[in-house]
Write a structure and sequence with these properties.
With 190 residues, the chain is of the alpha/beta class. It has one domain: P-loop containing nucleotide triphosphate hydrolases (Rossmann fold), CATH 3.40.50. A six-stranded mixed sheet has the order 2-3-1-4-5-6, with helices on both faces. The longest helix is centred in the C-terminal third of the chain and has 30 residues. GO terms for molecular function: GTP binding; GTPase activity. Pfam families: Ras (PF00071). It is a lipid-anchor. It is found in: Endomembrane system. InterPro entries: P-loop_NTPase, Rab_GTPases_membrane_traffic, Small_GTP-bd, Small_GTPase.
């Protein structure tokens, strides 16, 4: 199938936050309650349509264990976006977000769109991280924020489309800016 754009993005965060389940829900529209730990990376792909354009998403689900961090870092290269995921029922996964974010910004290009995801919103009775805390973290660090549930598929489609809609808009604005910049300065170059 032909596509107008190909975007690679990665899913990062601590082990057990539901990164692989989010990938499975988005690519296969199913939830697997028991999932083996990711060793290195897992890969998925899916075609989506945004503003009438076919877009192929390559999704790289990274291992959350510290022992795989050096492998994970190599997958930042060329990524248009990242989903930074924490588990709303585990405060420690939220507390580690700054480390993950620093890693992402250090090893990726400056144009990468990062979306903060509070996963497992179906477990409201076990919540340890308030939604407002996630919103505040995202605002403070210039991230997009959303809560999801890989189990119920709540907001999973939106999460995977929204960052790339923003990325396409960013690219188009950049192209327009460069064209205007070239039109203004090009005549003086000769």
């Amino acid at each position: 199938m032909a596509y107008a754009y190909l975007f690679k993005y990665i899913i990062i965060g601590d082990t057990g936050v539901g990164k692989s389940c989010l990938l499975l829900q988005f690519t296969d529209k199913r939830f697997q309650p028991v999932h083996d730990l990711t060793i290195g990376v897992e890969f998925g792909a899916r075609m989506i349509t945004i503003d009438g354009k076919q877009i192929k998403l390559q999704i790289w689900d990274t291992a959350g264990q510290e022992s795989f961090r050096s492998i994970t870092r190599s997958y930042y290269r060329g990524a248009a976006g990242a989903l930074l995921v924490y588990d709303i029922t585990r405060r420690d996964t939220f507390n580690h977000l700054t480390t993950w974010l620093e890693d992402a910004r250090q090893h990726s290009n400056s144009n990468m769109v990062i979306m903060l995801i509070g996963n497992k919103s179906d477990l409201e009775s076990r919540r340890e991280v308030k939604k407002e805390e996630g919103e505040a973290f995202a605002r403070e660090h210039g991230l997009i924020f959303m809560e999801t549930s890989a189990k119920t598929a709540s907001n999973v489609e939106e999460v995977n489309k929204r960052p790339f809609s923003m990325f396409i808009i960013f690219l188009l604005n950049r192209i327009i800016y460069l064209n205007i910049h070239l039109l203004v300065y090009l005549p003086y170059a000769f």
